[in-house]
Amino acid sequence: MITILAIESSCDETSASVCRDGRILSNVIATQAVHEQYGGVVPELASRAHMENIVPVVDKALKQAGVTMQELNAVAFTQAPGLIGSLLVGVQFAKSMALALDVPLIAVHHMQAHVLANLIPEENPSFPFLCLTVSGGHTQIVLCESATQMTVLGETIDDAAGEAFDKTAKLLGLPYPGGPLIDKYAQLGNPDRFHFPEPQIPELNFSFSGLKTSILYFLRNAGTSLVYKEEFLKTEEEQKQFIAENLNDICASIQQRIISILLNKLKKAVKETGVKQVCLAGGVSANSGLRKAFVAMGEKHHWKTFIPSFEYCTDNAGMIAITAYHKYLAGEFVSLAVQPSARAEW
Ligand code: KG4
Ligand code: ZN
Q1: Domain 124-307 belongs to what architecture?
Q2: Taking the CB of residue 105, how many other CB atoms lie within 10 A of it?
Q3: I need a surface site. Which of 74, 102, 136, 160 has the fewest CB within 10 A?
């Protein structure tokens, strides 16, 4: 029996999970509400909140799993990428615990863990599979050949998909994080009402910054044009009125474009690799329009599609635990000298 405690602290969720033989026994997540008032994550405040949360969160995860510290065979943590001050809290905690219990330490890459969250449900993909990971910080298409062998086939060259949602929401005057709100209004709107351009980006890479710029001008001139022209500019009052009267259609049209950018590249990846088991991962996979379009595309092209439950899509330690379990089986441990890294190298 292999029992592992995993800790995730890369951004603004403090999370701990216990997994036994690849089965998640607990997945406790403390979300940090402190950032809402600032319209984004404040790194310094995130580190402080992790310090406050980590002991009670780990304690709760062990209790919910019905596991004592003495039963742990390894301690795992997110090593990279993320906010360095946030990562340090989790790394330091995991090191201390591994040292005290005299058990091995396992370092996990956050983006690999998002992909392997797809192995948590009982019905899961076999290798090889493709995964579209869409979160607030990342947008990647990954070819997963085994639990320890993954290749990034394409990624964003500027903003992440979640950022595209959140920045658009900000332009519309919606609070942070705006992704879920755009989803909500989009469900009531007409996605074909406004037309936003699809960028022509080479290979399997993505770009969302051009879309953001066209939305900015579109709103500034109250829907007259997607490019900047002084004579089209409207007063702030007129812009606000335009948004208020057309919010659902604007959200639906923007969301439809973000989804088509994502899924057209995924379709290309399936064509190029011949791999037809396809997964979604990351916080943006909560988007109802994306989920529907993904499943529909899978049915149309005879793919086998997988989406983890919402709890395992946003940042969570369950995905770190499942990844750590496979690393344990492969004998991939790290020394107590290990350091976190803010950067995303694999
Ligand atoms: O994976 P995640 O929880 O955190 C990161 O690692 O970034 O993803 C958070 C992102 C945010 O940008 C949020 O707006 C977006 O996921 N998101 C959504 C939805 N739910 C969360 N975007 C669109 N529609 C949703 N329903
Ligand atoms: Zn994440």
Answers
A1: 2-Layer Sandwich (3.30)
A2: 20
A3: 102
Q: What is the dihedral of CA 147, 149, 154, 156, to 10 degrees?
A: 60
Spatial distance between the Cα atoms of 283 and 267, rounded to a whole number of angstroms? 21
Q: What is the DSSP string of 189-226?
A: S-TTSS--PPP--STT-B--HHHHHHHHHHHHTTTS-S
What is the ipTM metric for this complex?
0.98
Please tell me the pTM assigned to this model.
0.94
CA dist., res. 187 & res. 319, Å (int): 29
Could you tell me if the CB of 165 is within 6 A of ligand 1? yes
Cα separation, 48 vs 210, in Å, equals: 35
| Identity at 275, one-letter amino acid code | V
Q: Which residues are annotated as a binding site for Fe cation?
A: 110, 114, 315
Instruction: Categorize the per-residue pLDDT at 233 as very low, low, confident or very high, splitting at 50, 70 and 90.
Output: confident
Measured by CA distance, the residue closest to atom 19 of ligand 1 is 180
pLDDT digits (tens, 9 = 90+) for 150-165: 999 999 999 999 999 9
Residue pLDDT, tens place only, 308-325:
999 999 999 999 999 999
CATH 3.30.420.40 placement within the chain:
3-118+311-330, 124-307
CATH class label, 3-118+311-330: alpha beta
CA–CA distance, 343 with 79 (Å, rounded to integer) = 10
DSSP 3-state helix, strand, coil percentages of the chain (rounded to 5)? 50, 20, 30
Give start and end residues of each alpha helix (H) in 102-235. 110-116, 161-171, 179-186, 209-220
Q: What span, in angstroms and rounded, lies between the C-alpha atoms of 180 and 313?
A: 14
Give, using CA atoms, the residue closest to atom 3 of ligand 1. Answer: 314
